[in-house]
Amino acid sequence: MGKITEKLLLERCTPKNTKLEQVKTLNLSKLGLKSSDLPVPLLSRLRCLEQLDLSGNRLQEMPSGLVLPSLRSLDLTNNEMEDVTTLDTLTTLEDLRMEDNLYITVNDNYKLIILLPMLRFYNGKDISNTANHVRYANSENLRKRVLALWETSFSLPDHRTAEKLAIVERDFVSAVRHKVKYGPSSLTDYTKWRVEMIAKEHLRSLTEPNEEHRDTEEPADTKENCNFPFPAKRKRSASAVKCDVTLNPQKIARSSRLQSIPHKAERPISTTPRTHKAAQIPATPIRGQSKLLVTPRNGLREKQHQSKEDMPLAKRTRKSARQQRSTEVHEMPGKVICTKSQHSSQEPVSLQPLHVLQCHSKQDSPDDFSTQLWACSFQPPLDYNGDVNGATRIVATCGGESVCLIDCETGLVMKKYKVPGEEFFSLAWSTVLMSRKGNVGMRPCSILAAGGKRGLVKLLHPRANMAYGEFRASRKALSILCFSPRQGNLLFTGSYDKNILLWDIGGVDSDYNFKVTQLLVLETTSTPLHFCLPPATPDTHLLAACEKGLHSYNIQLNKDPKKRSEEMEITFPVYDKDHDYHTIDGLGFLTNDVVASKSHMQGSIYLWSWNDTRAQRPNKKKKKKEVCAVILVELQWSSTDIPYLSLNTCPSKGYVVCGDERGRLWTYHVTDLKANFRSGKAIPATEILAWPLPVRNGQGPVEGPPINSVAMDPELRYLVALSDKNMAVVWIRTESS
């Protein structure tokens, strides 16, 4: 769509006119317009415009500074509106339509009533009674609570300076957002937004008593100060679930004075099959902070080694979790146990613990140390207009009966999805296409798939708070999920029935209807634990790390049969030792060619060449399919008999990270591949980060539990480690000393 021009505006106005200043009705529907396509200087000439139709476009917000002083009716149906506060300049609006805007919530509806003081009709309904209640009765009740908090806890400084007043405003606004509670929990976001507005208005009345103030704050200020970053307008309350960590003295500790606040009402995801119907699930941040829920125990249960026959049962009996709880955690900074090795040609990153969370606790219990956390993955940045800064801060975690989305910067749980009785073992992000009403094109959306002991794959659209469907992938528990990075609709599932299946989950329409088709069956002799698709050839090969070895499969869809056995089994030197080390419980690509993997009880991590190994694959006529991996280097790791401690890689920074049985993180900075590979010497870790020792006030530190899973965002700004004892630790990259 080209730029909006004066000629176009005159062509689409009714009745026809020759001057923009005289246009009263304008139809700009179904033009594929984005917010950036609306020229404010040109549109601001429409001084007499009374009716504007912008339906069927791709608008996410109204352009800043747009003033249409005569506008009475606006149609924004079937757009992508997210930020309703950008409508604040259209104060003369009486009739507004916003149906089929996926991300508009009930909180946004209430905000519109405040921002648009003359609004009487909304989506075709007369809202006069509701609007009067919100603007007067509701606002007055909130104002009384805000003023009461000011009188009891705050006052203006004796010597007023801009700096001191700014500090008072910051503290006062933070307090009212946390402590003023009124109305249903479903309106928490609106309430916090409204009391912030009232608090600032009250401060202005005290510092500028000779000026008259409106009941609402200046729109730009309102928008600027709603400062809890969260994609798609699902801004979560500031007190959402987290276990704050107080770090070393130079770090700023968060306040521990905030009182605990009741939970927001949750509606669990239905466990009945719902393949083609969307169920809207509310975001469920928990409000309030309390002292740390972590109690140190000398006898904390550790994960014991099971035989291969017992492992499936062990996973099926993992404990479930119900709700997250906010916690105040004091923590010692991570210690460097192993000095930096000399194999890195570039400076390694420095990581410090930032947050410790117990967001999968049973019944919100601070004493829950039995829920095991199994998988975590950072959200890709595709659903947020390429906003890498926003998207890669969000990490999904699963364990027990819940899946949580955590903002790594704030340490707050943005959303939580629960399925009572389920135990989630794996999750995976992808991007699929969503069709839009009116045939106005497709749009990408990030989805999350999660699966566990019930054998069902749950499909979630977190940005819209939708658990839009599920399908049965196995009659036994699911162990691993993995999407194709090249075709986001292709999903691999591994299960305890010793099968690997490839599914096409397709896209979704505007009503969240979708269709699932099974494409391939890959046979294996044991339970799959991890999948990897070679970065250079994700459409042709799959590596599957299983309890009885590492297998390679040909996954080309244009070839038969649809049920296939392995192309080859990749073996390792450790197999030649006295014990059975065939359980491959860690796997990841470090480059297009270099693979990191480890075997259970191996005590080290191999880096090996995928291309050189595959070049040795046996002739199809030979029955023996074993190929020995071409080892490039061996990395020293912990000597432990605890299985399922998986590793992860960050290719852009050349990092391999793996947790151990004591809560430590072994980090390896691998950059100078040519100079150091095939040297014959085992390389020590670049750095071993100690368990951060979170403590409950006066009750000592919590001992380090096994780390089941780790994840890093693509730029290694954050690292998330999930433990066997219901604790997730967020680490942040700091400037190297």
What keyword list fits this structure?
737 residues; seven-stranded mixed β-sheet; five-stranded antiparallel β-sheet
Could you characterize what this model shows?
- Residues 7-198 form the Leucine-rich repeat and WD repeat-containing protein 1 LRR domain.
- The structure is a single chain.
- This protein is α+β, with helices and mostly antiparallel strands.
- It is built from eleven helices and 40 strands.
- Strands 1-2-3-4-5-6-7 form a seven-stranded mixed beta sheet.
- Helix 3 (106-115) packs parallel to helix 6, helix 4 (128-153) packs across helix 6 and helix 5 packs antiparallel against helix 6.
- Residues 211-345 and 383-391 have low confidence and may be disordered.
Strand ordering within the main sheet? 1-2-3-4-5-6-7
Alpha plus pi helix count: 11
Helix content: 10-25%
The count of strands amounts to 40
Describe the protein's topology.
Layout: H1 6-11, E1 13-14, E2 25-27, H2 40-43, E3 51-53, E4 73-75, E5 95-97, H3 106-115, E6 121-122, E7 125-126, H4 128-153, H5 162-179, H6 188-207, H7 219-225, E8 243-246, E9 279-280, H8 311-316, E10 327-330, E11 350-357, E12 373-378, H9 388-391, E13 394-399, E14 402-407, E15 412-418, E16 424-435, E17 442-452, E18 456-461, E19 466-472, E20 478-483, E21 490-495, E22 499-504, E23 517-523, E24 528-532, E25 541-546, E26 549-554, E27 563-564, E28 568-571, E29 584-589, E30 594-599, E31 604-609, H10 610-614, E32 626-628, E33 630-636, E34 647-650, E35 655-659, E36 665-669, H11 673-676, E37 687-689, E38 707-712, E39 718-723, E40 728-734
Parallel strand pairs: 2-3, 3-4, 4-5, 5-6, 8-10, 23-27, 28-32
Antiparallel strand pairs: 1-2, 6-7, 9-19, 11-40, 12-13, 13-14, 14-15, 16-17, 17-18, 18-19, 20-21, 21-22, 22-23, 24-25, 25-26, 26-28, 29-30, 30-31, 31-33, 34-35, 35-36, 36-37, 38-39, 39-40
